[in-house]
Amino acid sequence: MTVEAEPAAAAASPETRPFSADVAQLLRLMVHSVYSNRDVFLRELVSNAADACEKLRYAALTDAGLLGDDAAFEIIVAVDSDAGTLTVSDNGIGMSRDELVDNLGTIARSGTRAFVEAIADQAAGKSESSALIGQFGVGFYSAFMVAKTVTVTSRRAGSDEAWTWSSDGSGSFTIAPAGDDAPARGTRVVLELADDAREFADEDEVERIVRAHCAHIPVPIAVLKAGADARRTLVDGSALWTKPKASVTEAEYRDFYTYVSGDPAEPALTVHFRAEGRTEYSVLAFVPSQKPFDLFDPDRRGRIKLYVRRVFITDEAPLLPAWLRFVRGVVDSEDLPLNLSREMLQSNPVLEAIRRGLTGRILTDLEKLAEKEPERFTGIWEAFGAVIKEGLYEEPDRRDGLFKIARFRTSSTPDGWRSLAEVLAGARENQTAIYYLLGDSAEGVKASPHLEGYRARGIEVLLLTDPVDAFWVQTALGYEGKPFRSVTQGAADLELIPLTGEAAADDDPARPADVAVLVALLKERLGERVSDVRTSARLAESPVCLVAPEFGPDRQLEKLLARGRSQACTVKPVLELNPRNGLVKALAKRAAAGGAGEAVTDAAHLLYAQARILEGELPEDPADFARRLDRLIAAGVGSAES
Ligand code: ADP
Ligand code: MG
Fold this sequence. Notes:
Blueprint: H1 6-12, E1 15-18, H2 21-32, H3 40-62, E2 75-80, E3 85-90, H4 97-106, H5 110-121, H6 126-132, E4 147-155, E5 163-167, E6 172-177, E7 186-193, H7 203-213, E8 221-225, E9 232-235, H8 250-261, E10 269-275, E11 281-287, E12 304-308, E13 311-314, E14 328-333, H9 342-346, H10 349-372, H11 374-388, H12 390-394, H13 399-405, E15 407-410, E16 418-419, H14 420-425, E17 434-438, H15 442-446, H16 452-455, E18 462-464, H17 469-475, E19 484-486, H18 501-505, H19 512-526, E20 532-535, E21 544-547, H20 555-565, E22 574-577, H21 582-592, H22 598-614, H23 622-641
Parallel strand pairs: 2-8, 12-14, 17-18, 17-19, 20-22
Antiparallel strand pairs: 1-6, 2-3, 3-7, 4-5, 4-7, 5-6, 8-9, 10-11, 11-14, 12-13, 15-16, 15-18, 21-22
Bound molecules: adenosine-5'-diphosphate (ADP) and magnesium ion.
């Protein structure tokens, strides 16, 4: 090969470049850690090759010239046991010089950092780490688990230049013009195997791995042994999703799931169907059994791959609502045009119909699973319930369906999961609402005094601790005619529901007249701090609690909103007294007897501070709180001495 023009000559000289810091760190891990399952490197290289073929198949729709006279895509894995090499070649889209430099070493990819952090986190679980490689989009570098050197020679489709990238994984790589044996199109990745990895230069070994991990890649894969005259096809590259459900085995589904998700575990739910009628499409989608690392990363693409009549189009089409963003899989449309532009992706009636159909189908399948295999469904809910609940306010039309599958921790089942139907079935007579308690943590809500009066009446309260809960309860109108009502807001309306059990047996509240005096006194002493003071049936043991006024936001929602704006809550709470509490009874008696001295003022402030502390807040004036508490303790200690 001769180098002629000036600028080309400059670009043509070999150049050594450092890896980006993230990649260098990742490579150190790949080279120096011992992974229990090194097989995955081959799956990663083969799936990159398949991606490259699918990209070219798509690009050729608008530029047929790119294919030249080689329109049959193929991935070849060649082994040479004497030389100790393994080579993965494809005739896909290829990479230009800049793409080699960017994609294989310098552009920081979000998954790289996340992967390094994830394995640093679980230093013990090496086997887990190799399972993470595919999910984090760092597949190429897994070649360094088995190779001393990796050499990538690539020619971008339609280009007359070819380039060679090579590295031993220690800090830098070299980029140089390729020799005469460069592929006519696409990429060749040559691994010079490390001494402890020479077993991979074996035809049978390659066959085993390809059959185990690459069986459903939609591009044909062949193996070629050095010295043999012909390659042997291992995978025919047919599209699994187009096959009838009855002819696909569990193992085939699992392999395909791994191919689309990078997750080697089993999916928790497989949704495979063909829609016929106005819009025709096939779907093969999966709900993972564990959270993908990017569950809360809105930019990560590749969740659902869109094909049009078996041609891969894009993994950026909006085929699922955000609240199903953990679903992975493939949609293959019969109706869309092959030259689907970016603009068409954003608003397209066919895509819209598919999105509706797919969403509805996933919901129904989840509902069926919840009925037939409640344990498996619970696993899904534990991993993704917080995300699914976003649908409750994002898609009001789906609310009824979502309420069927939603599961909740409740005051009577704080460690299990209850459906709304179950909660409703257990409602007490005269119970007019489905009650809920919002909070930050399961521990916090379980111990909340606000639940006491509901517990004492055998009313089951939903315990809502996901941030999204504060939002959907505001907009959801109710379930089966019963509104949702916060136990920390407004009047408790519990008087019509009788106490049960022990609470009913020794029910001995303070005299209403005495309590009225105490209430008036507290209102006066607390002044502006509270919007009202009143008694309530909400409490059964604790002396006091704070609730939000009838109209306006719930206190938990206000806290969440205030956190974002770093400003304090502005709505003044209501202080509620428990007329059944011993301390309140004593105070009421003393107040009614005219003994409202300093001690009662201290008590007023301390009770208010206590109510705040129970909600995880500081007393408004900690110094004042300490002074009053000291005084009370001193009096207590003094009286004990005398
Ligand atoms: P991912 O496949 O998740 O993007 P990888 O680390 O496996 O991550 O690959 C990095 C990038 O390198 C790919 O996104 C692609 O752009 C490029 N690449 C890797 N292998 C090939 C190949 N055989 N042909 C073309 N491009 C490739
Ligand atoms: Mg990859």
